[in-house]
Amino acid sequence: MLRSNFLTCQFEILRRISKRFISSREKFTPLGRLSVCESDQVLSLDYGNRLMYFPILWLRDNCQCSECFNPPTHSRIIDWYNFNVNTKLETIVWNDLQKKMFIKWHDDHESVFELNWLQKRDFSPKSQENHLLENYRPVRKAWTKNDFSSIFHSFEFNDVINTDEGLKSWLKSLATFGVARITNAPKDEQVCRQIANRVGFIKRTHYGEEFIVKHKADTTNVAYLSTELQLHTDLPYYEYKPGVNLLHCLEQSQSSGGQNLLTDGLSICNMMRQKYSEHYKILKTIPVDWTDIGSENGVKFHKIYRAPMFVVDERDELIRLNHSIPQRGSHFTIPLSLVKPWYEALDVFVKLIRTEAAEFKTQPGDILTFDNIRLIHGRTAYNDTGNNVRHLVGSYLDWDEIYSRLRVLSNE
């Protein structure tokens, strides 16, 4: 029974210990120490010179018994309708030999927690930070035009297709820098599908699962024109827009044009936050109508999605960038007083992304892969000839599938 606001419970030492482990005359020094702060409803475990913290309510919510948790599905099955958020501890006991913590709750329910499980879920800031670094997502590293040659890594097609290490290395580089190149891919229009199947599956849009990028004079998509393709993100009019672009080059233009353009939106946002803070605030708060109207393979579509250019999280970190001059709708449903300031902010942004654009040219057999919610991409104008027609095949992947695959590969 807990009898004070701060009660220290010495760990139980089993009295009946097998002679295999320790003689009855030997002294056994407890490895851990439990403490409970009732006012904060936090339990601490000091084990091996490591102090860990666990909210009492959280421990009850995460009871690992068969009534509360289903191991095959890794899922909580506790009856939350009848859950008591004012739950209290009755007794807590630590067993050094078993490396387990035993809890009896005020309603007579019992929970057992293993040391290894607790160590992985410790609430101390350092432990939580390590968990996010190791299990959530690779840390993104912003880059500038001058950095591009050092961060633009290449990976062999056969390694990515045939080895888990090759696949993992490519995906980790892609997640970190937002761009990576796969080289020496066969001249086959199904290659993007092969790559996607190694990760998960293709993201389907109204353009299908794969799309052919060639000059088409009568197209409804500006990407299919040979004129300059302004820097943009693909499909900003999708609420769940594709996370990653795969662009497989089968034939490249022999003209001086057709250069790829890539800018790191993460770097641009950081730059604007520091140097153009008012413009940055405008672009992250004012919603824009992103639209696409047309038809593909006889199917008509009319897409609209409203969101700011910069979508940020609670730490003011970029989680999605929306930008496309052709696909920014003419409806602008904001107060009149904000229209001019928004255009001024857009002007700063457009000039920055063009100035900071890395320029290069993929070659046949290259698959350019890049983050569509972070990077802005474009292409310089080019000229086709009768013997040379620029030909790319593209497809999309979702980041959910990429991060899932990375975690599986990291745990194997």
Can you offer a commentary on this structure?
This protein starts with 5 loop residues before the first strand and ends with a helix. It is 27% helix and 29% strand. The model is unreliable at 1-28 (pLDDT under 50). The chain has eleven helices and 23 strands. It has helices at 56-61, 115-120, 125-136, 148-151, 157-162, 164-177, 191-199, 265-275, 277-285, 336-355, 399-411; strands spanning 6-9, 32-37, 42-47, 50-55, 69-70, 75-76, 89-95, 100-105, 110-114, 154-156, 179-183, 210-213, 229-232, 244-251, 260-264, 288-296, 299-307, 310-312, 318-321, 358-360, 367-371, 375-379, 391-397. With 412 residues, the protein is an alpha+beta fold. The strands form seven sheets. It has a six-stranded mixed β-sheet. It has a four-stranded antiparallel β-sheet with strand order 1-2-3-4. The longest helix is centred in the last third of the chain and has 20 residues, at 336-355. Helix 9 crosses helix 10.
Which descriptors apply to this entry?
elongated, 23 strands, 6-stranded mixed beta sheet, 4-stranded antiparallel beta sheet, alpha+beta, 412 residues
In short:
The protein has 412 residues and is α+β, with helices and mostly antiparallel strands.
